[in-house]
Amino acid sequence: MPVNKDQLGNGEQVILTVRTHAKALVGPALLLIVLGSALGIAIALAPPAWQPIATYVAIGVFALLVVWLVLVPFLRWRTSTYTVTDRRIITRKGILNKVGHDLPLRRINNVNYEKSLTDRMLGCGTLVLETAAGQPLMLPDVPGVEKVHRTIADLLFAGDDGYDD
Fold this sequence. Notes:
Layout: E1 14-19, H1 26-45, H2 53-78, E2 81-85, E3 88-93, E4 99-104, E5 108-114, H3 117-122, E6 124-131, E7 137-143, H4 145-157
Antiparallel strand pairs: 1-2, 2-3, 3-4, 5-6, 6-7
């Protein structure tokens, strides 16, 4: 869910909004295939004397596992966003309990990114925002992390020619 206009300050402009990388959905998608196969096998192997109760139980267990192992991770992914405005970095996540973090751009001292081999193949990475307060803010699974890094660096250092007056 992108940031609502009422969550922005006067004159604040959204520069970009990204959702965490879809690689988080690979495991749940594979689990859905495995669960569907297991459901078919369970129904096929259930003794005829146990029908239709065995089918109902198998479908019930399947439905519970799909909600817990597939739907919940999908909703977590769907509700996790990173928004860059001209004033701050906004993170939002959560299905029922919403968690948000706002980091003003003026507090950021350094911006880095990290990419594992898998991240490089998938085109994502972890954005590391360092502040004077100490503990850096880590934004994992940012798609197009180089573009986001460059955008934030441009916002941080706009008009900075590197010379002290």
